[in-house]
Amino acid sequence: MPYILVRSYLNSGFGGPTFIDYHAKVGEQGEFESLRSAMSHLLAYCTRRGCCDYSEVSLANNHNAPYCSYQINEPPYLVLNSLEKHGYKVVAANSAADAVQNVLQIWTLHKQA
């Protein structure tokens, strides 16, 4: 699980929210706990049931790994800066606009093992 997605809508202003998404897999408890520690530091809360506790994740097999998401009520630049302090680096970024001009920004982050 060293890759995570960070996403936020630009039209939401500079106050967030920002979302962090990832797939939790069996055998990655160390990475899971590392990310969970970072989420705790950011005061993030889990937005999907069954993925914020490794004991629930370990019941799934890798092909059906739960898709997990956290929400942080902070702007993305603060979240990205904090994740960098926890060892994550931005490896890709993109943005897209829908018909109503909501601009979604997405960053892919990676953490070396």
Please give a structural write-up.
This protein has about 110 residues and is of the alpha+beta class. The protein has one domain: GTP cyclohydrolase I feedback regulatory protein GFRP (Gtp Cyclohydrolase I Feedback Regulatory Protein, Chain: K, 2-Layer Sandwich), CATH 3.30.1410. The protein is built from three helices and six strands. It has helices at about 30-40, 55, 75-85, and strands spanning about 5-10, 20-25, 45, 65-70, 90-95, 105-110. Strands 3-4-2-1-6-5 form a six-stranded antiparallel sheet, covered by helices on one side. The chain is globular and about 40 Å long. The protein starts with a strand and ends with a strand. The model is unreliable at about 55-60 (pLDDT under 50).
User: Distance between termini?
Assistant: 10 Å
- CATH architecture term: 2-Layer Sandwich
Number of DSSP E strands:
6
Strand order of the largest sheet: 3-4-2-1-6-5
Beta-strand residue fraction: 35-45%
Helix count from the secondary structure assignment: 3
Jot down its keywords.
single chain; 113 residues; alpha+beta; Gtp Cyclohydrolase I Feedback Regulatory Protein, Chain: K; six-stranded antiparallel sheet; 35% strand; globular
Brief characterization of the structure:
The protein has about 110 residues and is α+β, with helices and mostly antiparallel strands. Helix content is about 25%, strand content about 35%. It is built from three helices and six strands; from the N terminus they run E-E-H-E-H-E-H-E-E.
Draw up the topology in text.
Layout: E1 3-9, E2 18-23, H1 29-41, E3 45-46, H2 54-57, E4 67-72, H3 76-85, E5 88-97, E6 103-111
